[in-house]
Amino acid sequence: MKAPLPTNEAERLAALKEYHILDTGAEQSYDDITTLAAHICEVPIALISIVDEARQWFKSKVGLEQQQTSRDVAFCAHAILQNEPFVVRDATKDRRFADNALVTGEPHVRFYAGIPLINPEGLALGTLCVVDHQPRQLSAKQQEALQALSRQVMALLELRRVSARLADALEHVKTLEGLLPICAWCKRIRDDKGYWDQIEAYFHKHTGADFTHGICPECLEKAHAKWEHKRSATEAAPAGN
Chain-centre distance of CA 177, in angstroms? Predict the structure, then answer.
């Protein structure tokens, strides 16, 4: 049975792109987690599965040759529909999976347990999952350990997203380090398309920064002196002028 799409699918896919994780190479930090998951749960297969629009892609895998499968047959496509662990004790006895190609053929899935990888915005990107060729169940301790490992996967993904955002911010800073065409009269800045923006609008557009306004001490002193001079001039002016 094909899993339905999450109600927040468009938002989920948009968030997934921010991590720049799909189709990246193997990384030891992720492989260590799947190795531990397989060992702790005593299963032949452990995967970090990222669910894309039409596929599930494996960032890390133990005991499986495929790099990805169709989303239509993915157990993980069902797992991301909930926030809790998704467990199938015997796929041959579950009407959702009994005729699934991954059950009737290689890798002959019988047992599946997947922990959704949920980001800080509450969106499930994929799973950390374990698979066995035999029906079984996890002990409470094994399930607890698998959930702890899933949090480590999510921490690695978040670090990747933050790094990407910092790199993008630095790129914007490099852009702003060059010469900026600025009007000597009104102080507007000309952008690459020839439009003139207020300085606040320009910096917000390129860095996302917002502005608050105040008066620095030097300008305040100048404004005060100018106001005093104007007041003195007014008082000194002859009556009736």
Answer: 28
Say how far apart CA 153 and CA 156 lie, in whole Å.
5
Q: What are phi and psi of 128, to 5 degrees?
A: -105, 120
Give me the domains of the chain, ranges plus CATH numbers.
Answer: 9-165 (3.30.450.40), 189-236 (no CATH)
Q: What is the dihedral of CA 150, 151, 154, 156, to 10 degrees?
A: -100
Helices (H), 54-139: 75-79, 101-104
Choice between 90 and 194, residue whose per-residue pLDDT is larger: 90
Query: Is the CB of residue 50 less than 8 Å from the CB of residue 126?
Result: yes
Residue in 96, 113, 84, 116 with CA at minimum distance from that of residue 12: 116
Q: Do 94 and 88 contact (CB within 8 A), yes or no?
A: yes
Distance (Å, whole) CA 130 – CA 146: 9
Q: Is 59 helix (H, G, I), strand (E, B) or coil?
A: strand
**99, two tokens:** 């005729």
Tokens 């002859």, residue? 238
Strand 189-190 vs strand 196-197: parallel, antiparallel, or unpaired? antiparallel
Q: How many CB atoms lie within 10 A of CB 47?
A: 26
**What's the pLDDT tens digit per position in 91-125?**
999 999 999 999 999 999 999 999 999 999 999 99
Give the model's confidence band at 214: pLDDT under 50 very low, under 70 low, under 90 confident, else very high.
low
Q: Which residues contact 124 (CB under 8 A, 6 or more apart)?
A: 6, 12, 51, 79, 80, 81, 83, 116, 117, 118
Q: How many CA atoms lie within 13 A of 23 on its CB side?
A: 3
Query: HSE of 236 in the Cβ direction (CA atoms, 13 Å)?
Result: 6
- pTM: predicted TM-score of the whole model, two decimal places: 0.71
